[in-house]
């Protein structure tokens, strides 16, 4: 649809705005004159501040004479010679006018001029910069992104004080015209990757864009692959670190989570504390996280496989106890394990969604029902409950892979319970194939873990000391192996 | 970090190791194997190199389908060998259908060349690590005095030579994708060397363990692994079986990739070579072939597969030679 | 094509769901009869098999049940014992198999073949030759015997698995269990079995054949006790074969006043005892035509050919 241009008539422009927004009580217009030329301001009072407009623009105009004889001259003067911090590009089409108003800007319409001026007077209620909720770190910056895009860009700029940071703000193809920002370091990020990413983001058409994760599905190569196409972070510090690695960060207006692309598997096991702590301790914690991930995915399935198909792998003293526990429960072991895992997930989901006032009740009920009464009633056995609980706790050691851990765990339990050893092997190959087959923008998802090389020991499985790490930082695209 | 043409060397090497590990019987004493090692490597490497040289000249529709049949037969043999091993360990628990599903379905996730290459590297690492663990666990039962001091006569030499000259499809596959193998002709030589050395190494391990009883042991590697007792966990054959099952899946994916290339399969921009409808047909075909062949003699099938591989290579070499000669002898056109 | 793909996917999902809800192919633990040990015996011309089973009703892992069977052959006896049980036999945790004391080499091969076929998933079995006792006594004392033999295996670091029975062609060596201590037996095709029950010879033979690494006995008319770790090195020379027995962490204690107390003298006595035992054993084994110490292997490797006429001497070294 061709874009409709603004009319030179102030009245017609105002009538157009009244037709669209007149029913909204927060839509405000005010006629005024500047240098004897009729003008009008328009803004949304909820997201734009008339006081700011007065301070930034109207007060100055009131005190200084405006040397303009008609509307066009007035606009030229305001844009090029006045001290008003207006947007450099005038608004010439109606869609842009609506977009600017919706973005919280104030718009000055001038009679006799088929263009308008926008002034950035956003003042909307927003959450202050607080601590991140989803990423627990002891050391390092404790700031988190907020819902306001401009704030998030400024938080990045504060950390990344070079001229190479590029922040391209664009409007997504959504019904709500949500803005997003593609950030990258123009010297470190591979140009072809950025071009591809930019092109793909521009091609995405979705009804709503409420979070950066909405983009993830469109950026994924293989839709059958369960591994995430991107990583997410609430911390500007982490986003800054990823920018230094040549990656791209996507911020979406209204979402406090930044999306990092491309994302590698090993990044899910890294945290800011790794680089603040000593190398040995950091390495140990990382190895622990890998073990926790393997335990959370394969632990319950391995238990089911061992007890039902290969009891020779279990020490004899433990076997007697397991046999006793198994005899006292009615369900086959695989269904019992699936049921307990499912129940734990229900409790987790209930605890997450329940209002804070009754959240503690959920924990109490969950612990009592699952921990005490189910075992006492003989519905579930203690070893199964212990194994499932251990796996659930282990999942929380790597929270960014939580969804994948749960899904893989279910798959492995079913395969191991149905087919035994070959089922477990098949599940392992499927998971491994998914990880190996993921190619975010052509890069190995398993870098630097595979192929096992120097990079894996420098900053992959473990971390080397900072003096060595500083010699060679790995940048996407610069290490072609 | 970024791979445009990932090397399939790891997958080929893994396939060769699987051939050795899944064999139900041993083939020679270690002394015989060592004596014929070099000549076996030379023969098999030469066959692979000649095939790699002549294949671009002779690849016609008939030879392509012959190669496809050879690969499919090899895949069926691998699945049935694995099934036989599981039946020996867990009788009445694991069915052929279950084995087929669990090794074939993961192949659907190994449709991309990069996935095959990367997964093969990981599984190869796991296999070697598992081998080290298994060897350590039976270390106290390996006795040098179990080595047999048999004299090498002509019959033993011939038998060992015949075993060393087994032509596996993995030695012919590099001819199909020269763009993936940056080492060129060295790929086939390395494969032949490592495959033969691994074969002799496994025989050495088994002879140290079984002594004079080695030729009679059925599935000897599994029987040796059962005595593995390391730390808290006894019996390590479950570890062996899990890793071998993973290796067989990767090998099947490699063969499927080769079949797809031979059949002129669809190529997409996303490097996903095997389209899903093709995979579904492949799955059904493998299930059918396994059901048909499950009662056949596997040793005979191995021998037939080996003979067919040699025959196919000889035919290709012959045709290639004729093409080369006629191309050499034909008058140059103006 | 899309329709057929959808059909294929639906069929696969249905098959998967069927497997899921079919209760799976595994077997609960309580349905398994976990065999810990098998005792074969011969009584009145028939073969007997006594199975020592893990008591799954008890939390204590050292509680056992016993099942027995009888038949013309060991295979039939074993099948008879299995038939009397309700659950599915599970040999994956079988540690020990005891064979009849007077078992010949040929019978041993039959037992080995039976165990290879029957015991699945293949377990790590230790073999013993058990002294003659009645089947009823065997049934009563099976659990105690099992614990004792396991303790001896640990104490003397015995390593005699099923594979070692068949690894030397036409001869085999096995530990024996007689009374409450272990001995050593050499079985050879077509020959009488040699059994050493006296502790010095039995343990020395076990060490020299690679089955054990520990010596613990009393000698010199029960006047000196010895405990030591042992390792063996064989050096084949053109004129003789030297067997070096290296003893480490040797602890020698005089038990009576009649023996010297000095360490050197005690060691001297021990060395003499071992050398006498060795030479006597070599004579016996030469007459039998057996070579459990694999001396001919070293002669072939180091000298190029075996020579049965070469004498073998034992040299004892103390670390």
From TrEMBL, chain A:
Pfam families: GerA. This is Spore germination protein. It comes from the Bacteria. Belongs to the GerABKA family. Keywords: Membrane, Transmembrane, Transmembrane helix. It comes from Gemmiger gallinarum. The chain crosses the membrane at residues 287-307, 368-394, 406-433. The keyword Membrane applies.
From TrEMBL, chain B:
The keyword Magnesium does not apply. The chain crosses the membrane at residues 33-55, 62-83, 89-110, 122-139, 159-177, 189-210, 241-263, 275-296, 308-326. Keywords: Membrane, Transmembrane, Transmembrane helix. It comes from the Bacteria. This is Uncharacterized protein. It comes from Gemmiger gallinarum. The lineage of its organism: Bacteria, Bacillati, Bacillota, Clostridia, Eubacteriales.
TrEMBL record, chain C:
The keyword Signal applies. Residues 1-22 form the signal peptide. Keywords: Signal. It comes from the Bacteria. This is Germination protein, Ger(X)C family.
